[in-house]
Amino acid sequence: MTINVMHLGLSYACNMRCSHCFADKSRDLIKKEDYYKLIDEMYELGLFVLYYTYGEPLYCPFFFEIAEYVKKKGIVQVLMTNGYLLNETMADRIKKAGISKVFVSLDHIKKEEHDRNRGVCGSYEAALSALAYLKKAGVNCAIATTVTEKNADVLFDIEDLAVSMDVKNVSFLRVRKDGAIRSFEEPKRKAYVEFFKDVLKRNPAGMMFHDMELIPILTELYRTGEISEEIYEKYLEMNLCHAQYTACVEPSGDVSRCNLNKQVIGNILNDTISDILLNNHRKEGSCTCETN
Q: What is the mean pLDDT of each successive set of 10 residues along the chain, which is 292 residues long?
């Protein structure tokens, strides 16, 4: 069994109240020493990429200690952050800790809409400042947009903002609710689909999606000759479920195979991560993603 990717929560603590948040917050139970042991085990299982996620990772008092430890293993580190705590000094520390990429959350092109969704005044300006600090420090940074009915019609604008800031990557992740992909009302869904189709035909290198419901649309465009086989294979791989190669560990110690559709299969405070994953090995194609 090989696990290539881990989504790791160091703390549920967060300074925002995002309306789309899917984290079932509990108590932070894992100690720093437990994380070292976990990382050692995951490294032996073939861990290649580690995503820091769940609460705001930069709130964790030992975040940089963990990052330095992971750096020594040669594991690729990706930080997901709302950017509010990020300043010039923090950006430099992130660079020195070996973080390969930082995704800063941006929900809307209008600051009042972003701030309303985040529940914190000034969060929009903080996100833009965070991207600027990261670029100045030489950190590879990107925008992470959770696609909802409130922003599905401004995705082109978010892409344009990224281009204007010379940010190479934007990740568009469809909003989840109760572990399932949330359905959209028309015309919001139409706007989202049209944006996806446009991206496929232009094929800008940095636009990313993770939504299995886009696969039939992708397949139809390939079938009708509107996109090449190369683009088809690229975006198919991007939107397929990879739960069989993934592990997710929350700050409570709970383990699942997908942080978007969490089905708890164990807790690292009770068993080793290896035993948990071996006893709950998922077969390819067994994704439980559904539409809500």
A: 92 87 79 96 95 93 97 97 96 97 97 94 97 97 95 96 95 81 87 96 90 95 96 95 90 88 87 90 52 56
**Which pTM does this prediction carry?**
0.93
Rounded CA separation 220/214 (Å): 10
Phi, psi (rounded to 5 degrees) for 36: -60, -45
Task: Encode the chain in three state secondary structure.
Answer: CCCCEEEEECCCCCCCCCCCCCCCCCCCCCCHHHHHHHHHHHHHCCCCEEEEECCCHHHCCCHHHHHHHHHHHCCEEEEEECCCCCCHHHHHHHHHCCCCEEEEECCCCCHHHHHHHHCCCCHHHHHHHHHHHHHHHCCCEEEEEEECCCCCCCHHHHHHHHHHCCCCEEEEEECEECCEECCCCCCHHHHHHHHHHHHHHHCCCCEEEECHHHHHHHHHHHHCCCCCHHHHHHHHHHHCCCHHHEEEECCCCEEECCCCCCCCCEECCCCCHHHHHHHCCCCCCCCCCCEC
The whole-number pLDDT of residue 283 equals: 45
- What does the pLDDT read at residue 287? 55
